[in-house]
Amino acid sequence: MDARENLQKILESPDFAPNIVINRLLPAEEGCYVPFPDGLDKRIVDVLKNRGIDRLYTHQAEVWQKTQEGKNVVVVTPTASGKTLCYNLPCLQALLADESARCLYLFPTKALSQDQQSELNELSLTGEGLNLKVATYDGDTPESLRVSARDTGRIIISNPDMLHAGILPNHPKWIKFFSRLKYIVIDEAHAYRGVLGSHVANVIRRLRRVAAFYGAQPQFILCSATIANPKELAQALIAQDIELVDKNGAPRGEKRIILYNPPLVDPVQGIRRSVVTESRRWMIALVRAGIKTIMFAHSRVRTEVAASYVNEDLANIYTDNSRIRVETYRGGLLPNERREIEKGLRDGSIQGVVSTNALELGIDIGGLDASVVAGFPGSFNSFWQQSGRAGRRGGTSVSVFVATASPIDQFIMNDPQWFFRKSVEEGRIDPDNPYILADHVKCACFELPFNDKDMETGDGSFGLKARDALEFVEEAGVVRHTGGRWHWADRSYPAEGISLRSATADNVVIIDVTAGRNSVIGEMDRPSAKELIFDNAVYIHRGRQFLVEKLDIENRKCLVREAEVNYFTDGLVKTDIKVLTEDEKFTYKTDDGVTAAGVLSDVLVRSQVTKFKKLKFRTHENIGYGDIDLGEEEMQTRSLALLFAPESAGGKVLAKMDEQETGEALSGAGTLIRNIAPIFLLCDPRDLGIAERVRDTHFGVPALYIYDKYPGGTGLAESLSRRAEALFSTIRGALLACPCKTGCPSCVGPGVNKAAAGELLKALV
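Above: the chain sequence. Below: its structure as tokens.
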């Protein structure tokens, strides 16, 4: 049987069919084509024709036209629609027309960088007449190759992290490159949202500033998956006007979307079969049917656990596991491990992969036919990206969304048509976030002095806000103002201590000490290390289990030893919150009057991992606890406090409850908010923190704090403050749609008073 018949057999199987909520076929679409443009260099045309490309999609031609007019462009089309050629054509044209020209390609991950270098090498082979040197310059590039890449590379492929910490601080070594820079390509621009996007926008400010210093004014070409505000996000990233191209001309193969809700094992408590167990069953069925599959799990632990289950089920020494090889792919793997897995997916030696969102972006990992998404990934944008990993070669593909018991997942399962109606989210960044801006102003001052005249007129890439940031960091003694210029005045190297992707730049190295090996097997940022690799934790690496012997936070290392245990571990975090300022107040109303008040404020959040639980493999039952003795983490951030004063509708409801009921009502509402707010904000539930206070010591009334889990905040609390009424309505709808009687993981949480939470939410709507 072919893949389509095998898939149909799986869908009709009694193992899966009863719990398929919806099975929708998205039909194939024809492509729209145009001839090669007249001005395109004949050598490029010949190379493309040799690769079987004899015309362009309409969106590729439109990008070409706008770049030739000197405009910045952002192109937004679906996965596998030929966006690579959108930027390669103008860049290759510029390089062939001017032998001194240079281009910079920025990708969010090293995997994408390697993938694009392979693509470019195929286009620029010496024998085909282009003879253009393409070089990757990232953290994996050996020192011996860096000088050659810097001096002779016509196209440099890198990522924002290396640009931030390795290239811009050393710009005098890059004079030849920066002075001749024609194009800057930013691929997967939708990935740069929230904290990361705010950092990257400041890195681009620094890049434009250095390029201008050497006399270059490069054009920008950005590529993005579908989001609601691509032009707005692109303009915020590059701080320049930009043209939008969003009419897709590429064909699309048919795709089947399956929404699957695991069966209930305890209808009274609303407990469903584990998403890891059910996703594993789907993956096993697909790979055994000869359908190459990628499964997306949304944490390192879940990824390793799911892959372990799959490989255990496939284990058979007589058939060599049916010649099916399944690997994990996640952050923290060593470079050679990542390359091995990527190569195996392309050449077919690996038939399945369980990944975090590390493979969500547009890397070509071969002809995958199916994707299994284990739980809602935090945004619709991410879901369609993960779904698009299958079917890149055309033909029929399938994407299976396996729901968890979380409120957002069950909300989707209760209204599957809404899932298909819902538009993708907006991407938001705040480049002027004071914490982030101050960090990058320090880096920019280290690279080149600031000029008072530029800041007074708003000229220069940082605009008028640079002065405030410089005056702030001047108090720390790291910059000085003299002769109308701001100079770096410290021995330190500021970029070294600033991470673009987390609140801290200091990673913990994980060392395997089994049998005296002393070999590095991974790394992790410090806050995550405290929650995941504390003493006696179970660390899983590519299916192998390790017990943590010692987490040495001070020296940034963790010693682990290989072991065989029947459980994995999960840290429990205790949080305390203190209000520092009250900045803006809101009143939420219905026709019947005020329901609640809201206060935007700066808060200090203290968190500490105090205990961990042991969860048994397969059943996930709790088999014990352990203590953790690690220091607390402090973070100043932004918060929206929902206040329920006695005169408000919400306050009147809570006043009728005792202290325990009030706590459960607030806790239930907070659980729903954390899980459903990502519908309104392009963020992951883990980007939001929730803290409930039955009698808040600062405001003196019951309060529910919703805060950004990043120093300084990233605008999530502000955005939510203006959408709170719509959020209240949505979470009450989710609560009413849940069939449980007393509270379950799909609504307010197991053991929480559902009725009390329902009364509070009824008062808010």
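The longest helix spans residues 194-213.
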